Amino acid sequence: MRKRSCIFIFLFIVLLSLSACQNKEEAIKEEITEETSVTEEAIESGIPSVYIRLDEEEGLSKINGSEDHTYEISGSFDLIVPEGYEDLQSVKDLKLEYMRGRGNSTWLADKKPYKIKFEKKQDLLNSGFNKHYVLLANAYDRSFIKNRLTSYIAEKMGMEYVCDGVNVDLYVDEEYLGNYLLCEQVRIGEGRIELDELKDADTAPEIYGGYLLSFSPWAEDEEENIFVTSRGVSFYNDTPGFVGEDKDAGTTRQKEYIRDYIQRCEDAIFEQSDVYYGDLLDMISTADYWLIQEFSENSDGFKTPSTYCYKKRFETDGSEGKLYLGPLWDFDRAFGDTGFGDGDTAYFNHVRHDWINELRDKEEFCDLLKERWKLLDQVLADVCKDGGILDRWKKENEASFIKDQERWKDFYAMNEGEELSSQNAIFEDLKDWIGKRRKWINEDLEEIGKILAKITIVYPDGEEKRVKMAYGSFLYEEIGKYVPEGSVLEGCYDDKEQRIIENASIHQDETIHLILQKAE
After folding, report:
1. CA 356 to CA 363: how far, in whole Å?
2. Sign of torsion over alpha carbons 145, 151, 157, 158
3. Does 349 have pLDDT greater than 90?
4. Residue 326 in contact with residue 289, Cβ under 8 Å?
5. How far apart are CA 284 and CA 372, in angstroms?
6. Which of 268, 365, 414, 451 has a CA 20 to 30 Å removed from the CA of 70?
7. pLDDT tens digits, 488-500
8. Assigned architecture for domain 452-518
9. pTM of the model
10. In angstroms, rounded to a whole number, what is the distance separating the alpha carbons of residues 398 and 41?
11. Could you give the residue ranges of the DSSP H alpha helices within 90-185?
12. pLDDT classification of 130: cutoffs 50, 70, 90
C-alpha cells in the first residue's frame, strides 16, 4: 500500500511538471509571436522554426558579403517547436556570441550556410551541451535530409559519434531564408566528439590522444597543420592545431607523435612493417565509414577535408587508443544526385582512397565489409519501408518544402531547369535509387574486393616492376608515376603488342610495355 501511495504522489508531481512545461512552451510561442510578428503558419509548421535577430542593421548582408567568413555579428536566438514534435523543446532569447558564414563550395550558392556560437552552452538537440552549432543550407540537396539521413544510418550502425541535426525553417531579422538543418558541428568537446583534450605541456601517456584530423586538406589551409605521408596521403591537424606563436615544445612533441602514428598506420596497412594494422586502426569504424560513403556514392568522400578521423587516448581495456574513421559529414551530393549526373548503382569503387584500396585487397577486411553490409542493408530497408523514417521526414517537411521552393525557385531553376521537381518525386527517386543500389550490392557483393589490379610494367631495357593500380583508374595517369626521371612516356602496348589508347582505364591484371623517349 505504501508503495502504491508513493507511486500516486510521484505521478501527480510528474503531471504538474508536464503541465508547467506545456504552459512555458505556450508562453514562449505567444511572446515570440508578439515580438517578431511571426505568422501563425510559421508556428504551425511541421518542423521547428529558428528566429535569429542580429545586433547590426543589414547584418545578414554583411555576413553574406564576407567571403572568408571572418565577419561575425552577435544577436539572439529563438527555437520554436511545434506541438507533437518529439524530443525538442522551445527556447527563447538565447544570446549568440556570433553568427557568420561557413562552407567552401556550398558558400557559392545563393542559399548560404551559417555557423552560430552561443555565449553559454546549450543543449538544443538533446545530444549534449555545447556552444557551437551550424545551419546547413542543403542548397544542392532538394530532399533537405541527406546529411540527416547519413547520421541516422551511422547511429543505427553503431558508429560512436554522429552529428545530430533537425530540419528547421530559418528566419533572420524576420526574413525567411528557407529549410535548413540545425546541426552539431564536428569538433572535440562535450556533447560532440568526447575525447580527452590535450594540454600544451602533455607528454606520454597523455600525448596518445585525443586528436581530430581530416583527410585531403584544402591548399589554402594553414601549412603548419598539413602533413603528407610517405605514400602521398595528406592530412590536416584539426584539433589540436599547431599554428601560432604561443605553441611551445610540448605541442611540437604532440605534432611529431600524431604524424608518426599516422605513418605507422600507413606502413602497417601496406605491410611495410611488422605491426598488424588492426592494432593501430579500428577496423569496424573503417569498414562502416567506407561502406556508407561507397553505398551513397558521396562525391566528396575522401576528396575534401569533410573526411574525418580521430585518435583516442586509451581503449576501454587501458591500451593505447587507436585511430578511428568518423564522424560522417557532408553528404548533400550523395545518394544518386552527386552533382555530376545520376549515380550508377551497378558499380563499386565510387569512393576510393589509397588506404581503403589496400585494405580491400586483403581477404580479412573484405570479409568484414561483407559482414557489416548485412547490417547496413537492413538499416536501409527500414529507412525506406512504408511509414519509415523517410516517410516521416517527408511529411514533416511538406509545408517547409513549398515555402523554401518559393523562396529559392530562381536559384533552383538555374541549377535544375525551370520544371522543378515536386517533393513527392524527389523522395520517390531517392527511395528508388536506394532500392536499386541495395539490389546490385546484394547480387554482386563478391565484387567488393575487386579494387587493385596487379600490373607488371616492362621497361625498354627489359627491367620489370610489379605494382598495384586501382580498377577504373586511367592507365596512362597511373603509369606516369613510374616513368624514370629524364624520360618521357611516348606510349604503351600489351603482351599482344597492341597499342593501348590514351584514355584506357585499368580493368584487369596485365603486363604493360612502355615506350620511352629521353626528355629534351
Report:
1. 13
2. negative
3. no
4. yes
5. 8
6. 414
7. 999 999 999 999 9
8. Roll (3.10)
9. 0.87
10. 13
11. 146-157
12. very high
d(CA 487, CA 515): 10
**Residue 270, exposed/middle/buried by CB under 10 A (0-12, 13-18, 19+)?**
middle
Q: What single-letter amino acid sits at 369? A: L
**306-316 per-position pLDDT tens digit:** 999 999 999 99
Q: Are 384 and 431 in contact (CB under 8 A)?
A: yes
Residue type, 380: L
Report d(CA 176, CA 178) in Å as an integer: 6
Q: H/E element holding 54?
A: strand 49-54
**And the C-alpha cell for 370?**
561483407
Q: Domain boundaries in the chain?
A: 23-184, 206-361, 380-448, 452-518
Q: Give me the torsion for CA of 90, 92, 94, 100, rounded to 10°.
A: 80
Among residues 331, 310, 289, 260, the alpha carbon closest in space to that of 159 is found at: 289
**Per-residue CA distances from 18 to 14, 22, 23, 25, 302 (Å):** 6, 6, 9, 10, 47
Determine how many CB atoms are found less than 10 A away from the CB of residue 205.
12
For 214, half-sphere exposure in the C-beta direction (CA atoms, 13 angstrom radius) is: 22
Say which amino acid occupies 134: V
Amino acid (1-letter code) at residue 118: F
